[in-house]
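Feature request, filed as a ticket because there's no other form

It would be nice if the structure record came with a short human-readable summary line next to the tokens. Right now we just get the raw output. Example of a typical job, pasted below so the devs can see what we mean:
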Amino acid sequence: MGRLDDLDLSLKLSRQEEAERLAAAQERLLALRLRLGGLTGDQGIGPPVCVLFEGWDASGKGGAIKRLVAPLDPRHVRVVQFAAPTYDEKRHHFLWRFWPALPGWGGMAVLDRSWYGRVLVERVEKLAAKDQWKRAYDEINDFERTLASEGMVLIKFWVHLSDAEQLARFEARRDDPLKSWKLTEEDWRNRKQRKRYEAAIEEMLERTDTPVAPWHLVEGDSKRWARVKVIETVCERIERAVGAQ
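Raw output as currently delivered:
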């Protein structure tokens, strides 16, 4: 039994509950974002905010990100997606390619995938040597501690999804001509290695859930529930950080 097993994937919201809570949270986030950007109030700019998403394929990360940034002016938030590193990126330390995406004071960035690929897909697919991914836990913790020490609000999400729900979403994507592009042979292959990925996820949570950069686990079988939990959690973390200043 691990932390993933403790999640209640039956949690859900009605369409009306989702709409009401999303609207309230989005208004809350907009006010916070304007304050952090120094556009309202008289306290100047606030700390940088970096929201990081990891999760199963088809877990709804994209939909959650869309609702998260919807109320914000595009000039006030940056969304960055990370795929496999390029040849040139592989010539550097694995954390090197993420630095340019990080926000400065008064800024906000949302990362779709992140440096955790080193201890997830690169570990499971053997794209990184064992000694590389094993030492990556300490390297990641040091990296995040450095960011937090400089004032960054780092909000990390793992969006969890049951095996049955993932299969249903895969099949729905396969049968929808406007969504089939989202599904690749690699996605189907990864499903066959779910047990190995679960072991990697549990170790990642155990070793990189720290006081300065805790993991927030999101029950993803209900997209409505997941979207609301994400944006409400972001608001709570920012409010806590601003209140501590």
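Something like this underneath would help us a lot:
The first strand starts at residue 49 and ends at 55.
Residues 105 and 228 are 26 Å apart (CA to CA).
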